[in-house]
Each structure stands twice: as C-alpha cells, then as structure tokens.
Design a protein that fits this description.
Layout lengths: L7 H95 L4 E7 L14 E4 L13 E2 L4 E3 L6 E12 L5 E8 L3 E3 L7 E3 L4 E11 H7 L4 H4 E10 L4 E10 L3 E4 L2 E4 L10 E2 L1 E2 L3 E2 H8 L7
Antiparallel strand pairs: 1-5, 1-14, 2-3, 2-5, 4-13, 5-9, 6-8, 6-10, 7-9, 10-11, 11-15, 11-16, 12-13
Length: 302
C-alpha cells in the first residue's frame, strides 16, 4: 500500500489546529478558573479588610469609651477634690468665725423719746417741744416748751418745733466696743464731733441725743408726712476695737407728730403709734477682716 506523502502537511496542519484549539480551550478554562480564584481572593481580601476595618472601628470606639471613662473619672475626682476643698474651707471659716464670735462685744441699743438735760442740773428735753421765735433770735440749745396736748397752728403762725430722741448703748460683755453712726435720715446728733467714735467700755453705758428741728411753714409747704419729718431712719454698727466683727443695728422710729389740716397744722403730743422705747433691729453679723482676706487675689505664693 502506498502512502501519499503529498497529503502530510494538510493532515499535520489539521492535527496541529486541533491541538491548538484544545490548548486554547484549556488556557481559557485555566484563565477562567484563575480569574474566578482571583475574584474569590479579592472577595476574601475585601472581607478581611472589612473585618479589619470593623476591628479597627471597634478598637477606636473602645479607645474613645475608655478615654471618656477616664475623663469622666478625672472630672469626678476633680469635683470630689473641689467639694472636699470647699468643705474644708467652710469648716475652717466656721472655726475662725467661732473664734471671732468669742471676742465680739455684746452691745444692745435702744431708743427713747426725749433726752436728758445738757447737764445733771438741767431739766430733761421733751420728745416734742416748741421754741419761741418772737424775739427773732433762736437758741437751739435752750429748753423748749413741751407740747403737752393737741394743738392747732394757724396759717399766720410759724413756731419752731424740736424733736429729741436718745439712743442708749449698753455693753453686756467684758470686751470694749466701738459704735459708729452709719446713717441718719434727718436732723443731727448733738454733743458729738464729726467723725468721733462712741467707745463703750465693758459693762458700761453711753448715750447719744438726736435732735430734729423744723418750722411750721416748712411742714405746710413740704407736707407734714414727708419722711424727714415723720420717720427717723438711723443705723449704727457695733465693732470690736480690732475691726474683726461688725453688727449692724437699724431703727425706724415713728415721729408723726404733725398733720396738715387745710391751712392749719395739727400737732399731737405723741406720734400716731406712741412708743416709750424701741430696740434696734440687729442685722447679719459681718466679719470684716475675714471678708477682706477672701477678696484678696490669690497669687499662689505661700
């Protein structure tokens, strides 16, 4: 049997093409598998990255929570320290105040209408009196005529009225006290030099006389119920000589002796609400040096 080698190239080419096609198919399948494997790897990698990111986020949140917890704990510690410091300062202040209280003078102040005479032999000064101005010259230090009963002053009359109030300062302790006049709504304190303090020795008494002068015409023009003519506001403060403690004493005294009655002036011998003595209203104690020390700036120096 004879072979036609002239056909060999055609056969060989067919076989080569078949194997080339098979190789291409295998390559395509391998490439597809490789691509799928790569996709799976990428997906797994993405999952891992997502998991890592999740872990990082959890770690970040945990770190933030821990930081917030530490910050809250620090704030609580600072607040507790602040409360302890405030409590310690308050306890120290109470102790200091208690020590100052033991060295504070005990003085009570009372007011009485009228006044003692300028000397032991002189007649007492009335709560409300009239001074004669018919001679033109008025001596305010002379003894006025006491208003004993209700009277009416006609429009053509213009007498001078004088009111007196005595403030008594009585020491009840063995510590000397200094009394300062803080305020007085009208009138004047007689027999006292300006700026002069009232020193009350232990267990002793002092007094101070207030005088208010007004004429009838002024009461008609300004009104008898004007506060300066109807109420006496006075304020004193009692201190120790070292200016550590100050006790305010306040007075509001009824001096409504006068009343407008048309063109006339009605004058009563006693105020609308008559009183024989009044005690001052004691205000809140002040610790002057202690408060001054608290106001000083703290520069941190020892």
């Amino acid at each position: 049997m004879s072979l036609d080698f002239g056909d060999v190239p055609t056969w060989f080419g067919g076989v080569s093409a078949f194997f080339a096609f098979g190789a291409a198919a295998l390559a395509a399948r391998w490439t597809a598998k490789t691509a799928k494997a790569a996709e799976q790897q990428v997906a797994e990698l993405r999952k891992q990255v997502a998991a890592d990111i999740g872990q990082l986020e959890l770690a970040r949140k945990d770190a933030e929570q821990q930081a917030q917890a530490r910050e809250a704990a620090d704030k609580r510690a600072l607040a507790a320290e602040g409360r302890e410091r405030v409590a310690a300062q308050a306890a120290e202040e109470r102790f200091v105040k208690a020590q100052l209280d033991t060295r504070a003078p005990a003085v009570y102040i009372r007011a009485t209408p009228g006044a003692p005479g300028r000397n032991s032999a002189a007649d007492p000064l009335p709560a409300l009196g009239i001074l004669d101005r018919s001679k033109g010259y008025i001596d305010l230090d002379s003894l006025p005529t006491t208003v004993m009963s209700e009277l009416y002053v006609e429009s053509k009359e213009n007498p001078i009225f004088v009111r007196y109030v005595t403030f008594h300062f009585v020491s009840c302790s063995d510590i000397p006290a200094r009394v300062d006049i803080v305020a007085c709504s009208a009138g004047e304190f007689i027999d006292r030099q300006s700026g002069q303090d009232i020193i009350v020795p232990p267990g002793e008494k002092k007094h101070l006389v207030w005088r208010g002068v007004v004429d009838a015409n002024l009461l008609r023009m300004e009104g008898a119920t004007t506060p300066d003519y109807s109420i006496l506001h006075a304020a004193f403060c009692v201190r120790d000589l070292g200016f550590n403690v100050k006790d305010p004493h306040l007075f509001n005294l009824d001096l409504r002796y006068f009343e407008n009655d048309g063109s006339r002036l009605k004058v009563a011998p006693r105020p609308i609400y008559a009183w024989n003595e009044k005690y001052g209203e004691v205000g809140v104690r002040e610790y002057e040096k202690l408060e001054a020390e608290k106001q000083k700036p703290n520069d941190g120096s020892l």
